[in-house]
Amino acid sequence: MRAEIISVGTELLLGEIVDTNAAFLSQELAALGIELYHRTTVGDNAGRLKQALTEALARVDLVITSGGLGPTDDDLTKETVAEVLGLPLVLHQPSLAWIEEYFAKTGRCMPENNYKQALIPAGGEALPNRKGTAPGVSVRKEGKWVICLPGPPQELCPMFREYVRPLLAAESRGVIRSRVLRLCGIGESALAKEIADLLANQTNPTLAPLASEGEVRLRITAFAESVAKAEAAIADLEQKLRARLGQMIYGVDDETLEAVVVGLLRQRGETLAVAESCTGGLLANRITDVPGASTVFDRGVVVYSNRAKEELLGVPAAVIEQVGAVSPEVATLMARGVRDRTGSDWGIGITGIAGPGGGTAEKPVGLVYFALAGPGVNLVREARFTGDRQQIKRRTTQAVLDLLRRTLLAARE
């Protein structure tokens, strides 16, 4: 079954609200094995909505709309669907009774314009709305299927789960499953070269690289007649990728790099403290966003000034004066200092130039040094990141977390 989503609402086109409905519906359709060909957004305009519906029905079997089922004059979805399908609107008495009861429970009389919400295209099925006054509609004609859902997510999502999903599941001939592998330490172009043969010869499952901030993701998608077969196909390709890419793969799906690091520290029963300059506490923030991080994260200090580096970490003023605050020597002393002064197993030091100003020809914006001190370990790395201030800070913390992750994995082997 081929599908298209049409999101209705001028507020979507103006960017006043984010279309979370389309993302939700896309995920649900994929899980049901229904191929989504297009997603269209159209304003509250009958002519343009009619055009969008006509084009959609010419190229797919199933159209799902969201929005435009309210009581006002610009809520025109059902009316336009009925016109495109050549069907009259008829009163659905149970829906009218529900709407009247809805208002009665609040001690109000139903406004006259809410009456239109109980109208559905002839031959269609009304989908109850337990969270609002606008029923949904499922209507079929000549092999085409249109499902109209309300716009508010708190109404659309439960209506889909309770009523639409069972209808679609009965029609679906398979399932689609996806798994995302998350990688650090390799760029998108280098990754594409590394797996060029797998990308060139893909059929089912499919493989797609997706660039993200400081990492790359590989999405594996399989279509099969059952969940078990789809997951087996994904597992087979994943095994090949892991054999080839090794530790560059740090996690799967929604797993974050900081969560992986916290998990590794917890397994080892070890603690971490960090000293940050140019990242301004972002590394500590990412780590403490992980539930349960308090079992391994001792503390983080932001030592932005030279005086702070000297007073809180014991970095000698003479060293800073000789080589500069942005240097491998200072990063190393920061990592050792925060480790020694907190008694933590691991210490991290970060110093750099996040910009947009402050750089020189010798030490440009984006130059970062980060160091790791631990049991028998003293490492320091130089990186030259591009991007704006926030991107440089984010990419720095990503590189630091990846260094710690790889070091912990190596120590475990």
From TrEMBL:
Keyword entries, A-Z: Coiled coil
Family: Belongs to the CinA family.
Annotated source species: Capillibacterium thermochitinicola
Coiled coil: 220-247
Pfam families, sorted: CinA, CinA_KH, MoCF_biosynth
Top-rank lineage group of the source organism: Bacteria
NCBIfam families referenced in this protein's UniProt entry, alphabetically: cinA_nterm (TIGR00200), molyb_syn (TIGR00177), PncC_domain (TIGR00199), PRK00549.1 (NF001813)
Listed name of the protein: Putative competence-damage inducible protein
InterPro entries according to UniProt: CinA, CinA-like_C, CinA_C, CinA_KH, Competence-induced_CinA, MoaB/Mog-like_dom_sf, MoaB/Mog_dom
SMART domains registered for this protein in UniProt: MoCF_biosynth
MoaB/Mog domain ranges (all copies): 4-170
